[in-house]
Specification:
Layout: E1 3-8, H1 13-27, E2 31-38, H2 48-62, E3 65-71, H3 80-93, E4 97-101, H4 108-123, E5 140-144, E6 157-160, H5 165-173, H6 186-201, E7 206-210
Parallel strand pairs: 1-2, 1-4, 2-3, 4-5
Antiparallel strand pairs: 5-7, 6-7
Helix pairs in contact: 1-5, 2-5, 3-4, 5-6
Length: about 220
């Protein structure tokens, strides 16, 4: 089984982008951990305390735990200290796979976090550094979609989440401070998006992913 880190700029990004796949990975026996680069605050209806309760509740729904790196929301910068903080988390979990946000986005935090993660993957393998832990190099970096742009994107592959969709939606709904008022439609929007990608692979619901690197298969038995 693999050690998988799901890296998000803010609490709720991971659930929105790939909550169904997270639940599926857990069911399959993988070691899955969420990494929040910031606490996501301030927001109009939230607070650090509220967001912490919501993110903990969402993690419980999906059956995972999460780590807060502690960068500053709205001010995330791609720099060496941030890279090394994340590299230490990668080493701590001996990560095999990293899931990070798709790199084209309107939100500067999302763009910066993706670049930090890409470089932290490399930094984590270096010797003779002050990064805590033993060197580790994740085998794969895969991008999930939680972009603020209204993009028509073409994923490399989709994962069928027909059997974990309701867990994904339940996790998303834990963020009551974020999906209220003008954003109250988000959970149903998520349902519609997953239905669209499900239709692309012949299932009820699916989540899309992208990778720059070649994927290898041991066989065709899991293809839908």
């Amino acid at each position: 089984m693999a050690s998988i880190l799901i890296i998000g700029p803010h609490p709720d990004d991971q659930e929105l982008g790939m909550g169904g796949s997270i639940a599926k990975f857990v069911r399959q026996g993988h070691k899955v951990h969420l990494v929040d680069m910031t606490n996501g605050e301030p927001t109009p209806l939230g607070s650090p305390e509220i967001r912490a309760r919501e993110s903990a509740a969402a993690a419980k729904v999906l059956g995972v735990e999460r780590t807060l790196v502690g960068l500053t929301n709205r001010q995330v910068v791609h720099d060496v200290p941030s890279r090394h903080k994340l590299a230490a988390v990668i080493r701590r979990h001996k990560a095999d796979w990293l899931f990070v946000p798709y790199p084209i986005d309107a939100h500067p935090d999302h763009v910066a976090v993706t670049k930090i993660a890409e470089d932290a993957r490399f930094d984590a393998k270096l010797s003779k550094t002050d990064i805590p832990g033993e060197p580790c190099y994740p085998k794969r970096i895969i991008y999930y979609f939680c972009t603020h742009l209204r993009l028509n994107f073409t994923p490399n592959f989709c994962i069928d989440i027909s059997d974990t969709l309701e867990l994904k939606l339940e996790a998303v709904k834990q963020y009551q401070s974020q999906f209220a008022g003008p954003s109250g439609h988000v959970p149903e929007m998520v349902r519609s998006i997953t239905a669209y990608f499900g239709s692309r692979i012949g299932t009820a619901h699916a989540e899309p992913f992208f990778t720059h690197e070649m994927l290898g298969f041991g066989g065709l038995d899991q293809l839908i």
